[in-house]
Amino acid sequence: MTTADTIGARIRYWRLRRRGMTQAVLAGLAGLSQPYISQIEAGHRGIERRSTLVAIAAALQVTVADLLGQPGDPTDPVKAGAADLVPAIWTALIEIEEGERRAPTATMEETKATIARSIELRDQAEYGTMSRLLPDLLREAAAHGGEMFTQVAYHASACLRHLGYRHLALSAGRMALAAAQEAESPAWIGAARFACTQALPIEAAGVASRVAGRALNDLQGGAASPDVRQILGQLHLAAAFTSAVDGRVDHARANLAEAAREADSLGDPQDGAGFNQCCFGPTNVKLWDMSISAELGEHGRVIELARTFRPDPLRAANRHQSYWLDLGRALAQSGRTDREALVAFMRAERAAPALFAMNPLAQDTVAAMVRRARRRSVSEDLRVLARRVGIEVNA
Q: To which H or E segment does residue 344 belong?
């Protein structure tokens, strides 16, 4: 088997860079067992929890992004082309932040049509294609300002985050927040704060949870608006997940319960998207519950939750992928047959192919499945899926 660097390979690389640090020493510093570190480095197991990544990165004195390989090697065929326009987006953000706002070159109708296309691509999780629109669209929207620029800056933040450029995503999120505050739009202020929490690095999960909590307090006065209530629900979900990563399980469950209460009163969005395509409603709350349970290592709960619903009411491809990816990882980690996990991963890849190919946690789990299968034989389905995440399986 040949593969691009896995998380385990990067952990080994950085461990050896630390003056030959042994697996036992790394395990002790990270609060893990030496056999677990050995299995991760050998590629026989994938990383189960983001908090584990945080602990290992801290022990190695590197960032989680270093272990995930993000943004990643632009020569990697899996990532080739996906981030070609990131430098141009960055330049546009710098220009706007420095006040170099140009006069619009497109009509309002043309700009709105491009925003609609950006929304469509975001729904499809086609972030590479979406990135091609953003440099010019950011400049056009900045010329108009207000909620229009807030929305486009939010799109830029979401796109950059999924491409692995969290520092730029945070910059775009903060610009969206400034524009929303200037426009005095509570719903967009909340949406921009949500973008900022999502863009923060995994190591800052505690900070992200507190940012979400402050945003919740600030928005309570506008909670009568359905748009604001949807964003309040999303912020509760963000606070729940980041609290789980930060090890504050009670806080995570409390915020998840608040999100569920809000979702039950609102229902799923009739158009499958809702305000700012956030998809907030009972279905999305269950999807986040699956992700939170996965982060807490509750693989059985993930599988049980998956039996109670499907993501069909929502139109965002990344929501469908989240369902199948969390289920696949839970099946792979819980001792079930890899065939069940493979079926779930194939559904996840079909929901959002480009996003799946760039997901380091998906790649790591698929690599572990390939290594386990070598004792027997690698099925054609697993061989094809592995190839799509940059893993070539030798015959």
A: helix 338-351
Spatial separation of the C-alpha atoms in residues 117 and 130, rounded to whole Å: 8
In this prediction the pTM is 0.90
Helix (H, G, I), strand (E, B) or coil at 392: strand
Tell me the β-bridge partners of 392: 2
| Tokens read off for 344 | 């779930």
Residue type for position 244: A
Task: Domain 1-69: give its CATH code.
Answer: 1.10.260.40
3-class state of residue 381 by DSSP: helix
pLDDT band at 1 (very low <50, low <70, confident <90, very high): very low
Distance CA 306, CA 323 (A): 7
Closest Cα partner for 205 from 108, 295, 301? 295
Q: For position 262, what pLDDT does the model report?
A: 94
Q: Which of 169, 210, 209 is nearest to 192 (CA)?
A: 169
Provide φ and ψ at 392, rounded to 5°: -100, 125
Q: What is the pLDDT confidence band of residue 114, given thresholds at 50, 70 and 90?
A: very high
Other Cβ atoms closer than 10 A to 221: 9
What span, in angstroms and rounded, lies between the C-alpha atoms of 160 and 156?
Answer: 6
- What gap in Å lies between CA 5 and CA 230, rounded to an integer? 39
Question: 342-365: string of b/e by CB count within 10 Å (b at 16+)?
Answer: bbbbbbbbebbbbbbbbbbbbbbb
| Domain boundaries along the sequence of the chain | 1-69
Residue 2 clears pLDDT 60, i.e. is over it: no
For 45-58, write each residue's pLDDT tens digit. Answer: 888 889 999 999 99
Which residue, among 327, 315, 234, has the nearest Cα to 281 in the 3D structure? 234
Least confident of 78-92, 154-168, 287-301, 316-330: 78-92
Distances in whole angstroms, Cα of residue 173 to Cα of each of 130, 147, 181, 198: 17, 13, 12, 9
Instruction: Judge whether 149 and 142 are in contact, CB under 8 Å.
Output: yes
